[in-house]
User: Fold this.
Amino acid sequence: MSERGALRVRLDRLVREVAKFGAVGGAGLLVNLLVFNLVRHTTELPVVRASILATVVAIAFNYVGFRYFTYRDRDKSRRTKELTLFLLFSVVGLVIENGVLYAATYGFGWDTPLQSNVFKFLGTGIATLFRFWSYRTWVFRTLPAEDAGTSGESFLASDVEGQLPAPGHVAR
Assistant:
């Protein structure tokens, strides 16, 4: 395969990954904002505490979506480590997201429901950039080429390179 063709394949895979991440993340954003507004309008919790609660609910929702949809073809052999890293990076994202809201609410006094939603959304966007990078780099790691035998993409990639699996090779 030419260098240009290989680049095209990698770019196509990245576009698909970003689209799947965006689909799960978009649904998670809706969960986050719905829980945030529900808690904000039905309880007396302060705005940042309501946001933290909503973010925790969204983190749980997103893990399921990322593990079983976006990154379902990634390494599943170290679930405990994966979940630990996911939670660690999610907490960093939670701090980023709610730090923006905290600064707007307590630093600038912007505390109307509209302002709270705008800054929650802005903080979520900034945190999402961090989460995308950290999840794909550290949490949902790709399988080594020889272990990816069950995915059609890995078979096609090895076939394109002119290397067929060795006789007797069993895909895991």
Observations:
- The chain has a mean pLDDT of 85.
